[in-house]
Amino acid sequence: MDTSKKLEVTKEHWENPQVVSLKDANLRSIEINSITSALKKHAAGREWSSLADFGCGDGFDTQQYSKLAKKTVGFDYSSEMLSRASKLQGDTLKFQKLDLISGDVFGTYDAVVTKRFVINLGDWAIQSKCLKKIAGAIEPGGIFCLLECYRSGLENVNSHRVKAGLPPLVEPYHNTYMDFDKVLGLMSGDFSVVETRDFSTYFYLTRCVAPFVMGENAFDFDEKMRLLAESDDVLQGSGIGPQRLVCFKRK
Q: What pTM was computed for the model?
């Protein structure tokens, strides 16, 4: 599928009233908790003055982050998603429409989040330009919590699935997973990495162990697997599964 067609079907995907941000609610919970913990940690006891969430979707996650900032704005290009998010608006939380491919970011922020947003931007040429736009809106000393999906992590979890006799997972049709080293290289000039985190324990338990043991009933055990992964994250840093959180600090 060429890039223009992929962008078109991605737009259609997010305008569908039946679409949810992530079907795996337990993974979404882990993602939110990881970003929230990172924001708290790197705030060093203070409240962020301004926070932006790019690709905010239905705003649920943004609302959680907004508890840590004086003012928060969520950006998205989907009218359907923004319609859902608007119900969460308040004095310190706003949502705005932004097509980052064709538009520019106005204003600056000392904390920025993206979560599975950049993977919706067609190809690396577009993704890298949009990452640069976001980076340019972050104040010196500010934090960029980038939680996206990478091909290497997908290949890693699939290698374990194949060993267990399970079929490989495929990249969602509307996503373009990134090259982790390319992202680090792109950001290295203006940012330093202050924290990285993956979700290897959860992915190995839910995408390898549970389906190997339970077959079609594997997803029934996601909550227990999440609780186990949170209590004993033994595989942290193993790079199993596409999702990875990288926290950058603006120099």
A: 0.94
Assigned token pair, 38: 């990172």
117-131 burial, b at 16+ Cβ within 10 Å, e below that, comes to: bbbbbbebebbbebb
Q: Mind listing the domains of the chain with CATH numbers?
A: 3-151+172-199+238-250 (3.40.50.150)
Gap between the Cα atoms of 176 and 1, Å rounded: 11
The torsion defined by the Cα of 76, 99, 51 and 185, in degrees rounded to 10, comes to: 120
What's the gap between Cα 162 and its chain centre? 26
Which amino acid is it at 203? F
Q: Residue 25 carries which side chain, given as an amino acid letter?
A: A
Query: Reduced to 3 states, what is the DSSP secondary structure of residue 175?
Result: coil
Per-residue tokens: 226: 């999440």
> Following CA atoms 83, 88, 94, 99 in sequence, which dihedral angle do they give, to the nearest 10 degrees?
-30
Q: Answer yes or no: are the C-beta atoms of 39 and 145 closer than 8 Å.
A: yes
Do the beta carbons of residue 66 and residue 72 sit within 8 Å?
Answer: yes
pLDDT digits (tens, 9 = 90+) for 167-194: 999 999 999 999 999 999 999 999 999 9
Tokens linked to 44: 């060093």
